[in-house]
Design brief:
- With about 220 residues, the chain is mainly α.
- It has a single domain (about 5-220), classed as Arp2/3 complex 21 kDa subunit ARPC3 (Orthogonal Bundle), CATH 1.10.1760.
- It has seven helices and no strands.
- α2 packs across α6 (about 140-180).
- The longest helix has about 40 residues, at about 140-180.
């Protein structure tokens, strides 16, 4: 097996380990929330660390796998729960990682996590406005009344706690993986990082456009 194939295998193994840890965190460290749909679990901590190490595309892919496993194991909200969980994790992991991965410094990590937290907050508010009436039977006016006392504080607290844990744990996880020779000491070239960042920003922009279109259709009485 050549060096590149060997490194690719080690990368897949490392990603599989992080996915397993995220699934375990989701299953065993889950804190039930209000109404059964606002719950805290630290899976995004592990997924974001994975994205910081392997890049935003890898982070989002791991998020999707974990959310799929969550849907068929611990979740009781079916495909709606899958959609909401993936939007929350994917946006937080994707935005945080795309900012940090280009230039790996502490300041970029903090900026990335703040941007990821705010992006996740906006997306989840909009999608709660879209989806909550469907699976809870509440009116959209009632959902709006939940924003300030419930949804905004919950999502900000969740993002802040996850961000603090990521900053605390990241260095130790990277060091352990490098000592185990599961990741190389050097990262991929800048050209590859630019290409990945461009693809991800297009995807995130598409999600935002779709979200805004759905909200506009709701206000227009079409949905």
């Amino acid at each position: 097996m050549n060096t590149k194939s060997s490194q690719n295998l080690r990368t897949l193994l490392s990603m599989a380990m992080l996915v397993a840890l995220a699934v375990a965190a989701d299953a065993f460290l889950r804190i039930p929330g209000i109404g059964g749909f606002l719950t805290y679990e630290p899976k995004d901590v592990i997924l974001t660390i994975g994205g910081f190490i392997f890049g935003p595309i890898a982070g989002i892919l791991m998020s999707l796998i974990v959310c799929l496993i969550e849907m068929i194991t611990v979740s009781t909200t079916g495909w709606i729960g899958l959609l909401m969980n993936f939007l929350a994790s994917g946006v937080f992991v994707g935005v945080s990682t795309v900012i940090y991965y280009r230039k790996k410094t502490l300041s970029r990590a903090i900026i990335g996590l703040v941007a990821g937290s705010l992006s996740m907050l906006v997306i989840m508010l909009l999608w709660n406005y879209i989806m909550t009436p469907i699976f809870m039977g509440a009116t959209r006016e009632a959902v709006l009344e939940m924003f300030l006392p419930l949804l905004i504080p919950f999502n900000l607290l969740k993002a802040a706690l996850n961000s603090a844990l990521i900053l605390f744990l990241y260095k130790g996880v990277v060091t352990a993986l490098r000592k185990s020779h599961l990741i190389p000491d050097r990262e991929s070239n800048d050209g590859e990082k630019k290409r990945v960042n461009t693809i991800l920003m297009v995807c995130i922009s598409a999600i935002l456009v779709i979200t805004l279109v759905l909200v506009m259709l709701i206000f227009a009485g079409k949905l």
